[in-house]
Specification:
Strand order of the largest sheet: 1-6-7-5
Structural class: alpha+beta
Number of strands: 10
Length: 286
């Protein structure tokens, strides 16, 4: 799933490549991705595109006085092409969900792999009208989001820190992969209760969060859309690396599986050397 660093890189890429160009055609290929009907997709045609904004994991392309808002979900992606085929694609064939054609023949496709569909597209006059955007918490890289603001979010929270970091209503943009990376950098168990952090631990976690995300954004800076997935994977230290040595201490990276996802962590760095049990089978270690 694209998270804050990848979506920010896509925002930057699109802002550079399409701002000032005109949307010629919008071709919906999978009707299920369109979550709004008024204004219609056709209202975007003939209008100038840009600039592009980001709200958490949402991309927000301004088109005239309207907004084309996209959430790529688990398996969605954006594919830029300098020259799109002249022949319109056939609906229902392959992963292609929506095509945006710009003046001059270039544009981008929104695609989604697999059978579990979550890709969402909205055409709105105000991005705040998109339900997912309306409930977003603060952006973790925003200048106004300081250490004390972060501490206030943790205070009184009885949830495990892994789940809290992934809650878009608490902090916007962090998903499964970067929450693993942040907690590894902070040397914190994913199952530590959020409210149990002392002042020093809050500071350490806040700094690890900001540095992990900032570094990932810097790695992705300037990359074409097609290079971002590989860059994300290569930069991860524990997520998706079960069975590999921890790059910090050399211990074996372990995993805990859930119904539809998994997390990875280093026992030596994060849990005092103790493996975590699967909550589906037994009580998790603290």
């Amino acid at each position: 799933m694209p998270e804050l660093p990848e979506v920010e890189a896509l925002r930057e890429f699109l802002d550079e490549h399409l701002t000032g160009r005109v949307v010629e055609r919008i071709l919906p290929l999978a009707v299920s991705v369109l979550k709004t009907y008024d204004p219609p997709l056709t209202a975007l045609e003939g209008r100038p595109a840009g600039p592009v904004a980001r709200h958490g994991k949402f991309l927000d392309l301004r088109v005239g006085d309207l907004h084309l808002v996209t959430h790529l979900a688990r398996a969605g992606w954006l594919r830029w092409q300098d020259s799109l085929p002249a022949q319109p694609p056939r609906p229902g064939k392959g992963p292609l969900a929506l095509r945006v054609v710009l003046d001059g023949g270039g544009g981008f496709d929104l695609t989604e792999a697999g059978t579990r569909k979550g890709l969402a597209v909205y055409v709105v006059r105000d991005p705040a009208k998109v339900p997912g955007i309306a409930r977003l918490g603060p952006d973790p890289l925003a200048g106004a989001f300081g250490r004390d603001s972060f501490a206030a979010l943790l205070a009184g929270e009885r949830r495990q820190i892994k789940g809290l970091l992934r809650d878009q209503g608490v902090i916007a943009g962090i998903g499964n992969a970067y929450s693993d990376e942040i907690l590894h950098a902070a040397r914190v168990s994913p199952f530590k209760q959020a409210a149990s952090f002392d002042e020093e631990q809050v500071t350490h976690l806040y700094e690890a969060m900001r540095e992990t995300l900032r570094t990932a954004v810097e790695r992705a800076h300037g990359l074409a859309a097609g290079q971002l997935k590989a860059e994300k994977k290569s930069g991860l230290r524990v997520h998706g690396r079960e069975g590999e040595p921890c790059p910090v201490c050399g211990d074996t990276v372990r995993s805990v599986s859930f119904a539809d996802s998994s997390l990875q962590y280093c026992p030596t760095c994060q849990t005092g050397g103790k493996p975590l049990a699967d909550r589906r089978l037994s009580r998790l270690l603290k």
